[in-house]
Amino acid sequence: MRILLIGYGTMNKIVARLASEAGHEIAGVISSGETDYPAFTNIDEANADVAIDFSNPERIQPLIEKDFQTPLVVATTGKKEEIVSALKERAAQAPVFFSANMSYGVHVLNKLLREALSQLSDYDLELVERHHNKKVDAPSGTLVKLLDTALDMRDGSYPVYDRSSVSNPRSKDEIGVSAIRGGTIVGEHEAIFAGLDEVIELKHIAQSKDIFANGALVAAENLVNKENGFYDYNNIF
Asked: Is 131 a catalytic residue?
């Protein structure tokens, strides 16, 4: 595949390395910084087979507001609703894929969470994520996805982001949301079900950023053979 990289930070540098090792070609980069690859300003300009975005909302949003036909994998977190809405508008013209977390294991975690929610309706739920001290958005896009699943499954529930501002006992409808930032933690996401005298935990630990880059490449390899439409981990395979 000829791959256009949108953004050239840590993640797309890993994508470039893994793509080259797999025999793919980097067609170029859309980035404000200098790279060893050709520079482009719009998605179709590179004549790539697929574009992979690991950038930020400020970079990807203007690109997807314009027409394009190149298959596009978007892994940017932040402003999820706006980005997904724009991608769905473009889905009539190109196959597009979005995931707030490119790890397939996180997709499985979300499915396990949905199943647990259906069976543990009386348990208190706390969602916790941990990331490195350079991560900007909090809570992470992945935790927002897990929270969306929980809110969808539990009618009347609502998130509590800062328990220090709550002076009342915990309501059964609360879903606690916590974000931890420190060191070089790659990424951890945890759902804690606390019941009477027992606790059940579902947890995903990312031990290397390579898993996200590999996830984007696998999604790209599948997307190039798809018809125009909006795809995620629920329908890409």
From this structure: yes
